[in-house]
Amino acid sequence: MKKIISTSLVACSVMLTANAYGADGLYVSADVGLAMLNDADATDRSLPGIEANMEYDAGVAVIAALGYRMQQFRFEGEIGYQVNDFDQQSGFGQNLDLEGDQTVLSFLANVYYDIPTNSRFTPFITAGIGFAMVDINDLRYAAATRQQPFSDDDTVLAGQVGAGVSYAVNDKTDVELKYRYFMADDLEFSDGSTLDGPSSHNIYLGMRYTF
Predict the structure, then answer these.
(1) 134 lies in which domain range?
(2) Of the candidates 145, 141, 135, which has an alpha carbon nearest to the alpha carbon of residue 187?
(3) 12-16 mean pLDDT
(4) pLDDT over 70 for what percent of the chain?
(5) What is the structure's pLDDT at 95?
(6) Cα–Cα distance for residue pair 177/103, rounded to 1 Å
(7) What percent of the chain has pLDDT over 90?
(8) Has residue 185 got a pLDDT over 90?
(9) In the predicted model, is pLDDT for residue 90 greater than 90?
(10) CATH assignment at residue 173
(11) By C-alpha distance, which of 138, 21, 11, 10 is closest to 86?
(12) What does the pLDDT read at residue 180?
């Protein structure tokens, strides 16, 4: 009997702890991470049928969100910013170094599902949809010092899917580690050129605070 009572008390304690560290309510979160942008094909209206492959350096991404947790689900609005420098262009039998960068300002509505574990660690999965404002800034060949840089922008549909794990520091504060695959529609610029929409593998570390 004592063993049963003791086991029951431990189980109740674990459940209460899990509930305490999984409180519902309004929260804010902020994350910073590494953005690994996939290569993209570009076309120029003056060269129909010919594509050039654009490569990027790894960049930085930051996101901030306001949301609400309800049991195992979280619903939030998020704003994100990502910047990647151009690395080189492959095409026409040549690899040419590039200068300039690409920035993405995104606005997403996200849904999370927290997987109960009865511990301070909570794995989760997520998906979101919204739009992104993509800017190409001062793009030119590094060796062509007299070339007029190319700058333009487009606003396109965007989304993300991902997964991660959070650790409850206390009943209000969680530290998060998350992976996301971010994607957006293809870009069309004012001069008729096109570029594959940004798609990137992003890893974030951040914090969430529940009011």
Answers:
(1) 2-210
(2) 135
(3) 40
(4) 88
(5) 86
(6) 23
(7) 75
(8) yes
(9) no
(10) 2.40.160.20
(11) 138
(12) 98
Distance CA 72, CA 127 (A): 14
Beta carbons of 56 and 86 less than 8 angstroms apart: yes
Q: Which of 55, 144, 49 is nearest to 102 (CA)?
A: 55
Give the N- to C-terminal CA distance of the chain in Å, as an integer: 41
Alpha carbons 147 and 157: distance in angstroms, whole number: 32
Is 133:92 a contact under the CB 8 Å cutoff?
no
126-170: pLDDT as tens digits: 999 999 999 999 999 988 778 889 999 999 999 999 999 999 999
- Name the residue type at position 58: A
Short-list 122, 124, 104, 97, CA closest to 19 = 122
Query: Are β-strands 94-114 and 73-91 bridged in parallel, bridged antiparallel, or unpaired?
Result: antiparallel
Count of other CB atoms within 10 angstroms of residue 61? 24
Rounded distance between C-alpha atoms, residue 96 and residue 140, angstroms? 10
Number of domains composing the chain: 1
Alpha carbons 203 and 211: distance in angstroms, whole number: 26
List the structure tokens of 92. 């026409």
Across 35-54, b (16+ Cβ under 10 Å) vs e yields bebbebebbeeeeeeeebeb
Token pair recorded at residue 68: 């609400």
* Residues forming a β-bridge with 210: 27
